[in-house]
Amino acid sequence: MAEISTKPYLIRALYEWCSDSGLTPQLLVAVDARTRVPPGYVKDGQIVLNIGAAATRNLTLDNDWIQFSARFGGVSHEIAIPVDRVAAIFARENGQGMHFEPTEAPGPEQTPPPAPGEPPAPPKGRPSLKVVK
Known about the structure:
Blueprint: H1 7-20, E1 25-30, E2 46-50, E3 57-61, E4 65-72, E5 75-82, E6 86-91, E7 97-99
Antiparallel strand pairs: 1-2, 1-6, 3-4, 4-5, 6-7
GO molecular function: peptidase activity
Pfam family, one: SspB
Region (Disordered): 94-133
């Protein structure tokens, strides 16, 4: 049986602690090809995201992905972050939180789940036609 990571549980616990304490929960994310964030806000391969209730819509913190909608420069974006790419969760006001070592996903490259109302990504490679008789 594969060992279940404690990381998503710790992220959820610290998110709740920040919210209950009136603090602003923030994520430090190591961006990779699977991470869906606005590229113009990535600096040195990392991005800091405010995941507080006032800054996000439809926030989900599950065991594999963190997803939400947020506005950047007045434009709404669908954000999808693999939990294994979270480098830290902390309170903006006092810096208290927890740091993690971002890891690469084991196995085949995973793609972020499609955002609600977003069409699935087209297949990669050359297009081909199949003749059916």
